[in-house]
Structure formats: C-alpha cells, structure tokens
Amino acid sequence: MLFGNCVLALGPWLVRLADVGPVAIGVWRLVIALPFLWLLARSMGPSPHWPKRALIITILIAAMFYALDLAAWNAGILRTKLANATLFGNTGSLVFAVYGLILAKGAPSARQMGALLLAFSGGALLMSGSYEISARHFAGDLLAVFAGLTYGGYLIFIERARTKLQALPLLLLATLFAIPPMILISVILGENMWPTNWTPLIIFALSSQVLGQGLLVYSIGHFPPLVVGLALLTQPAVAAVVGWLAYNERLSTGDVVGAIAIAAALILVRLPERGLRRKKVEAS
Asked: Nearest CA to 24 among 216, 211, 196, 214?
C-alpha cells in the first residue's frame, strides 16, 4: 500500500514531461498499461473470466469516476502548481476515509478521529510552504479538487468490487472501461493525441497504472478504507522528498513534522481495530 502510493506520487512530474494534451496523457496511460495488466492477470491465475452483470455495473461506475479523475487531474496539474494539485487532489483520501467510517456502522472512536485529523493536518503542513492561492491557479485548483472527489468515488466502487474479484482482473476491467470516455473527452477538447516522445508516457503507464494502481487495488482488499484513505496522504510526503532529492528543494521543519504526523496517524489507526476490518476477498 505504501509503496504503491510512493509510485503514484511521482505521476505529476511525468505528466508535465509528456507532449500531448492532458486528457490524452491519461488515454495513453491506460492504453499502454492494458496489455501488461492482461498478461499479469493471466500469469497469476486462471484466465480472467467475464464477471456477473451486477459486478460489471459496479466496475463501469468505478471506471467512469476514474476517467473523470484522470482527465481533471492531468488538466489541473498543467494549470496550477504541483503542490496545489497534490494538496487539493488528496480530497479523495478524505472521501474514502469517511466512507470507511460509515462502513463501520457506528460512531468513530476518539482514536480514529484523532488519526484522521492528525493525517490531514500533516498533509496540509507538508504543502503549507509551497502551495499558493491565486487567481492564476484558480481553474487548476478547481480541477484538482474535482479530480480528488471523483477519485474518492472510484475508490469506493473499487472497494465494493474488490470483495468479489481479485486485484488484477478488477484493475484490468476498470482500465479497459475507462478508455472510451477518456478518448471521447480528449476528442471533444480537440487535443493533440499523438506523441513525439513516448518515453514519459511509457514510464507513466508502467509506474502509475500497472505498479501504483495495481498495488493500491490489491491493498484495498486487505485493509479497511479508513487505513487506505490515510495512506493516500503519504503522497505529499513523497512529493516533498522528491523535490528535495531531484530539485534541491530544502525540506522545512513543517515538511518533517507533517511527514511524522502522517506516519503517526497510520500507526494510530492500525492499533487493534474494532469493526473496521472488511470481510476477506472472495476468490474470483
């Protein structure tokens, strides 16, 4: 779960390196990843079978949320600061964490609420030194918030499907179903869809879609939504470390304290759980 989030946190840099439209970047991310996901799904068990109708509908809804998330997220990254996009895009983690509390069918404990507040305070602290509210970034910030909300919807429906389907077949179908609406959005926007430099798109597809999403969808079947939602907040911490290593951006005291707060929240919420553990994933 944590390694998958580390990989996903590298995505914004790869988006900015691509030379096609923002939605087209998402299209290529999915298209390039699709054959690799199919090969992995086949190699790790029996040939993937077509799920029942109710499950297909759930996956279709997840794919629609995912298509909207990728389209808005990529567009937002190009219209605002990376720190803004990371901060506002993480609203999806709040949505999924709150969903986890609702699933518990009871009032959250003081420890759970404390972990949630601690994690979000840590995430905000990590970005406080670099995000910037301005009219110039307003459209990008709105796109990032919308992406975060739709990503929360994607995670909720993936979690529902994950109880009935293994990770790789599920991600394979969600990826497949998300491609047509993304192509439609890209065509309507009149984007340039054919790249001249394939390298960032190939790296983006294999890292974020195959490895990052693969590990995230797998972990959803083994951890309750509250834990996964809090773990998503490790991405700002990874972004801060990458900025330090790759761009010599000095880590402030706030960055360090924010990262420690997120780590403490994950430890706190993983203490003996009461009512949050989801049922085991059924074999597909």
From this structure: 196
Where b means 16+ CB within 10 Å and e means fewer, 93-116 reads bbbbbbbbbebbeeebbeebeebb
- Is residue 250 assigned to a domain? yes
Q: Give pLDDT tens digits for 76-127.
A: 877 776 666 766 777 777 788 778 777 766 666 777 777 777 777 776 676 6
Q: Does 145 reside within a domain? A: yes
HSE toward the beta carbon, residue 210, CA cutoff 13 A:
20
Question: What distance in Å separates the CA atoms of residue 259 and residue 146, rounded to the nearest whole number?
Answer: 25
- Tell me whether residue 275 is in a domain: no
Estimate the share of the chain in helix, then strand, then coil, as percent rounded to the nearest 5. 75, 0, 25
Contact 164, 55 (CB under 8 A): yes
Helix (H) or strand (E) holding 115: helix 110-128
Structural domain count, the chain: 1
pLDDT of residue 282: 47
Domain of 224 in residue numbering reads as: 2-269
Provide the 3-class DSSP secondary structure of residue 114: helix
